[in-house]
Amino acid sequence: MAIIAVVALFASLGGAALSEEQGGTGVSIVVKKASGKISVLVPNFVKEVEFVDKEGRDAKMADILADDLNFSGYFTAKRVEAAGKDPAAWSSLDVDYIAQGGYSTDGMEIALSCRLVDARGGSEVMSKRYLDALKVMRQRTHKMADDIIFQLSGEKGISQTKVAFVSDMAGSTELYTADYDGRSALRLTRDENLCLLPSWSPSGNYVTYTSYKNNNPDLWWVGFDGKKKGILSYYPGLNMAASWSPDGQRIAYTLSKDGNSEIYVMRRDGSELKRLTFNVAIDTSPTWSPNGRELAFNSDRSGTPQVYIMDSEGGNVRRITYSGSYNASPAWSPAGDRIAYVSREDGLFNIYLMDVTGGGIVRLTYRQGHNENPSWSPDGKHIVFSSTREAAKGIYEMDADGGNARRLNLPGNCQTPAWSPFMGG
Predict the structure, then answer these.
(1) Taking the complete model, does pTM exceed 0.85, yes or no?
(2) Which of 126, 337, 379, 411 is buried most deeply by CB count within 10 Å?
(3) Residue 53: pLDDT above 70?
(4) Once rounded to an integer, what is the mean pLDDT over residues 79-88?
């Protein structure tokens, strides 16, 4: 009964849906300047040498760049076809900066460039080139966006990050990754059986997940490009809900090998297994604090599923949710000050935020359907989650305050999302 209960209560982690504004569609985005945000004009990219470009890269790359800058939360980006070449006229555009992209080809490859200009003074504040962009145009443009974000805000951008998720888009439920905006989906597994609950290593090189490939919920790992994979834990019963420690050396996860669902920690190679919880209740869904000293987890030891925190060695266990009869799927924020979680109300699951003492509770989702599986962006400004608000399971992203929710344009039923760490350098 314990295994059935865990699967029923904690393994139905919904697919997260992202943006309803799709990047790179060729639609110009015009936004009013928001208080406290940096305004950037993004004209079409300019061909540095004359050649025939049937794919319309000039507008496509500018759309990607503007979308990335807008999504970051630091900028309002306005798309135009051209900004002109007269610095004296730029001061009348009512923007802070102009991000002028360019591209050229040697007949084999494409190189991108970016010139960031202070629109009010006319001075150049950044100039960079991005080589070998023909097959990875979108990725190089994401890199350009992150460089602009860092140049003007001093913060790392998330344009190069990815989301891991499971989907039945190819028939069987398999593990995929996609860019943060839902593009460039890549299939990582061909298990032809149920898989779920991906989790990224801190380096971004590996994803752990649970697969029923061998007719048991075993814990596997796969490289971020899908080229290498292996099995980590295959005890009888559940091997699931893995969470990597911040230093990448340990993995906390759920095992039911002793007849009850408990939380264990092992080394990243599967060695030195240590049991942390000892309770007749269901204990699952561990998530590390950013400093590696604590774990939040889910337990029904009080009679209903609630969120608890314990030290990383299993001591000092304390309950932190008391509002509501069903609280699950904790996800610790990158800053360590808040925990996102799922709570059931009137038969529907919604996503909430609280501080690490259990106070300051804020509800983030209000749409119909189930909203589940919160996972933080590495900058702590966004949350990816799954929802059935549009019938099919989809993956969504929203700001950390619940605003600007958008669905990722991914086919099939998609669920159990996990946002990667910073990637791309």
Answers:
(1) yes
(2) 379
(3) yes
(4) 87
Walk me through the domains of the chain, giving residue ranges and CATH numbers: 2-19+181-419 (2.120.10.30), 38-153 (3.40.50.10070)
195's enclosing H/E stretch is strand 195-200
What is the number of other CB atoms lying within 10 angstroms of the CB of residue 296?
A: 21
Distance of alpha carbon 276 from alpha carbon 286, whole angstroms: 11
The encoded tokens of residue 276 equal 């942390």
Position 135 pLDDT exceeds 70: yes
By residue count, the chain amounts to 425
Residue 419, pLDDT above cutoff 80: yes
Residue 404 phi, psi dihedral angles, 5° rounding:
55, 45
Strand segments, DSSP code E, in 212-293 are 218-223, 229-233, 239-244, 250-255, 262-267, 274-275, 283-288
For 200-204, 268-272, 303-307, which range has the lowest pLDDT when averaged over its residues?
268-272
Element (H, E) at 179: strand 172-179
Residue type, 263: I
Q: Quick check: 253 and 237 in contact, CB under 8 A?
A: no
Contact criterion met (CB below 8 Å) for 259 and 214: no
Which residues neighbour 418 within 8 Å (Cβ) at sequence distance 6 or greater?
Answer: 163, 164, 165, 198, 199, 200, 207, 375, 384
| 8 A C-beta contact, residue 167 and residue 413 | yes
Mean residue pLDDT across the chain:
89
Based on its alpha-carbon atoms, the radius of gyration of the chain, rounded to whole angstroms, reads: 23
Q: What is the DSSP letter of 54?
A: T
Secondary structure (3-state) at 29: coil
CA distance 401 to 391: 24
Q: Which of 402, 362, 409 is nearest to 381 (CA)?
A: 402
Residue 331: strand, helix, or coil: strand
Identify any residues that bridge with 163 across adjacent strands, giving them in sequence order: 178, 419
Is residue 133 within 8 A of residue 56, CB to CB? The reply is: no
Query: Which tokens in the block code for residue 24?
Result: 């790179």
Q: Give, rounded to a whole angstrom, the gap between the first and last alpha carbons of the chain.
A: 47
